[in-house]
Design brief:
Layout lengths: L4 E5 L8 H22 L9 E7 L14 E10 L2 E6 L2 H42 L5 E5 L15
Antiparallel strand pairs: 1-5, 2-3, 3-4
Helix pairs in contact: 1-2
């Protein structure tokens, strides 16, 4: 090995990255659970909120004329930027309630995935900072024979 340069990397003690790697592993396992729940969704989904309003029917002898009105369930949704209230009859109420519940669960899972993805990326960035070296490379010379350049003929 005479005449060759060997690079020596100065080693600097860094904190143990194993805990950070474990955190990344835990976050990714949590993400997987949310993804699996999303993949199991069969649909259909319906966006909107269920609202119960009490209305008076207008009959003078009805109990609603002097007390609370009759309960009626509506689906509050946005259509073309405007809030719309759609009356839900007893026939379709159960179906729409389940569809709205499924939609909210999917959106909740999506929100959790976004939050966990951010956490995972933050942990990965911290791991990179922890593992990345900023020390300089020190070159040392091993031996001296054969390291000089040969002079070309005809040149001084």
């Amino acid at each position: 090995m005479s005449g060759m340069y060997n690079s020596i990397l100065a080693y600097q003690m860094k904190p143990d990255p194993s805990r950070l790697k474990q955190l990344i592993r835990e976050v990714e396992e949590s993400r997987l659970a949310y993804v699996q729940d999303i993949l199991q969704e069969q649909g259909p989904l319906r966006s909107g909120s269920l609202v119960t309003l009490r209305r008076k029917c207008g009959k003078p002898n009805c109990r609603c004329a002097t007390g609370e009105g009759h309960p009626a369930t509506y689906l509050s949704t946005k259509q073309s930027g405007k809030t719309r209230m759609v009356y839900l009859s007893a026939i379709c109420l159960k179906t729409v309630v389940q569809q709205a519940r499924n939609y909210r669960r999917l959106r909740k899972n999506r929100t959790a995935l976004v939050k966990l993805a951010r956490q995972s990326l933050q942990h990965i960035d911290r791991l990179q900072d922890m593992l990345q070296t900023t020390t300089s490379i020190v070159n040392t010379k091993k031996g001296t024979s054969g390291t000089k350049r040969k002079k070309r003929k005809g040149r001084g």
